[in-house]
């Protein structure tokens, strides 16, 4: 049986990115970058919007307000290009231009469930907020991992991650601090049918 991780990088207030800020909010450090390089190899899962965005980054397109990528960002995009990737989409057409990417048109939850059942191996989401929400709601996520950067982007934040999510109980299984400022937390998630104090339960 494989293992599925929902993996997010966020500001402290739960945004996936922010207008005018560089990647990693400009706060990445050597410990964090080394951890990125040393993580176990995984098949990366994403939706069409994330695919288009990340393909653009891999091809050298920058975010609004950013003139160029740092060397660390370029190395990360290069690593993503070399990784095995699966994109779930009914709108993309083959052949896909990003190397090592498989297009799946089937229901994403059922396809991910089948991928887990196929055998040992690690599956990990990249961005893809709605896909991650669907996988979590279906109860097939084994680990929920968040790396929080010490910045609040209330004025410029883009993509609020947890809007529309169900209530989820999280049992911590790991935590770590990188570069004395970046916090990783990792949990076993359990989707709740109702709040714990729901009088109708």
Outline the structure in words:
The protein has one domain: Dihydrofolate Reductase, subunit A. Helices cover 25% and strands 31% of the residues. The chain is built from 5 helices and 10 strands, in the order E-E-H-E-H-H-E-E-H-E-H-E-E-E-E. The protein has helices spanning 30-38, 48-58, 71-82, 108-117, 129-137, and strands spanning 3-11, 15-18, 43-47, 85-88, 101-104, 122-125, 143-149, 157-160, 168-178, 182-191. The strands form 2 sheets. The protein has an 8-stranded mixed beta sheet with strand order 5-4-3-6-1-7-10-9. Helix 2 crosses helix 3.
Quick take:
By secondary structure, this protein is an alpha/beta fold. The chain contains 5 helices and 10 strands, in the order ββαβααββαβαββββ. The two termini are 33 Å apart.
- Spell out the helices and strands N to C: EEHEHHEEHEHEEEE
Q: What's the CATH H-level homologous superfamily?
A: Dihydrofolate Reductase, subunit A
Structural class: alpha/beta
Specify the biggest β-sheet: 8 strands, mixed
Q: What is the subunit arrangement here?
A: single chain
Q: Can you tell me the residue ranges where pLDDT is under 50 for at least 5 consecutive residues? A: 62-66
Termini, distance in Å? 33 Å
Defining traits:
201 residues, alpha/beta, 5 helices, 25% helix, Dihydrofolate Reductase, subunit A, globular, single chain, two-stranded antiparallel sheet
List the helices and strands and how they pair.
Elements: E1 3-11, E2 15-18, H1 30-38, E3 43-47, H2 48-58, H3 71-82, E4 85-88, E5 101-104, H4 108-117, E6 122-125, H5 129-137, E7 143-149, E8 157-160, E9 168-178, E10 182-191
Helix pairs in contact: 2-3
């Amino acid at each position: 049986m494989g293992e599925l991780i929902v993996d997010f990088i966020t500001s402290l207030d739960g945004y996936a990115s922010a207008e005018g800020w560089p990647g990693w909010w400009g706060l990445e450090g050597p410990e964090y970058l080394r951890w990125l390089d040393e993580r176990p190899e995984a098949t990366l899962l994403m939706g069409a919007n994330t695919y288009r965005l990340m393909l653009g980054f891999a091809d050298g397109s920058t975010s609004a307000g950013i003139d160029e990528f740092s060397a660390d960002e370029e190395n990360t995009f290069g690593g993503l290009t070399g990784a095995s990737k699966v994109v779930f989409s009914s709108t993309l057409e083959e052949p896909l231009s990003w190397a090592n990417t498989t297009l799946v048109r089937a229901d994403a939850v059922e396809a991910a469930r089948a991928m887990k059942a196929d055998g040992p191996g690690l599956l990990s989401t990249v961005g893809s907020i709605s896909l991650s929400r669907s996988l979590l709601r279906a109860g097939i996520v084994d680990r929920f991992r968040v790396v929080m950067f010490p910045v609040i982007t209330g004025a410029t934040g883009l993509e609020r991650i947890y809007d529309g999510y169900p209530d989820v109980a999280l049992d911590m299984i790991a935590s770590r601090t990188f570069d004395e400022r970046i916090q990783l937390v990792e949990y076993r998630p359990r989707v709740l049918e109702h709040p714990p104090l729901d009088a109708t339960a």
